[in-house]
Design a protein that fits this description.
Layout lengths: L7 E5 L4 H12 L3 E6 L2 H12 L5 E5 L5 H15 L4 E4 L15 H29 L3 E6 L12 H21 L4 E8 L8 H4 L2 H6 L16 H8 L10 E4 L7
Parallel strand pairs: 1-2, 1-4, 2-3, 4-5, 5-6, 6-7
Helix pairs in contact: 1-2, 1-8, 3-4, 4-5
The structure holds NADP nicotinamide-adenine-dinucleotide phosphate.
The site of NADP nicotinamide-adenine-dinucleotide phosphate has 31 residues, from α1, β2 and α4.
Length: 252
Amino acid sequence: MFDLTGKRALVTGGSAGIGLGMARGLARAGADVVLWGRSEDKLADAAADIGRFGGQVATRSVDVSDEQAVTDGVAAVVDLLGGLDVVVVNAGIGSSLQKFHESTTARYRAVLSTNLDGAYFTMRETSRVLVEQGTGGSMIVTSSLGALQGAGRNQPYAASKAAVLALANGCAVEFARHRIRVNSVLPGWIATDMTGELQDSDAFNSHVISRVPMGRWGTPEDFEGIAVYLADDASSFQTGSSTLVDGGYSLF
Ligand SMILES: NC(=O)c1ccc[n+]([C@@H]2O[C@H](COP(=O)([O-])OP(=O)(O)OC[C@H]3O[C@@H](n4cnc5c(N)ncnc54)[C@H](OP(=O)(O)O)[C@@H]3O)[C@@H](O)[C@H]2O)c1
């Protein structure tokens, strides 16, 4: 159990934060991993980090909001690895807070194009590969606690994350007959580049993080285990699930 040797994985947004944490877990468990992100520098640093586990590691600069880039990128992954078994649909951006009645269409479109269009293009193109391959597979989709809770001044982000949850659930039902499992992970407050300003805010730490029962920010390392579990045959009867990784925040 939890041996991913021979599994071929794609991690979008794998060059930093939660995606890098998941990629690290997959590589540590023996998988070959391709990382996508936009910045070549971040990708190079991430590849150096997970290269130490001995499996194959490759990177490609892909903006997931660009449909053609995703199509070409998936073809390149399949060429390189000879197929695909695990897809982590994780690339996403946060958004500055804006009063809803003053919020702009440009901001709304920017968030939706990466977080929702990007997930849609990635899931559609990789599911085509998995179905044709006929050997099953696992998709792991990063949604957010924000998909479930009211997110004042951040509605477009929350809407994008609720939408990817719906995409994942629909795909779980449709692809079960192909033994392709689709499960979602819902992070709470995690210390990554996305939450950098909040990590520096005394008000946020005292009003929000103090209410996390585990008493701390989550870290990218907290996502290694869930990625390995959902990628592995250990979870072979699990699909359409939504796993909160929030230190208990949503319950309190
Ligand atoms: N941090 C939290 O508290 C939190 C909570 C709930 C959910 N999430 C979700 O977790 C996921 C990862 O977030 P994170 O906190 O780990 O953020 P992060 O540290 O900023 O990492 C984001 C990753 O996505 C990549 N990325 C961003 N836009 C992209 C695009 N258009 N095309 C391809 N790659 C792109 C980034 O690389 P480049 O910038 O180089 O493209 C980076 O690798 C996101 O989906 C986010 O919504 C985060």
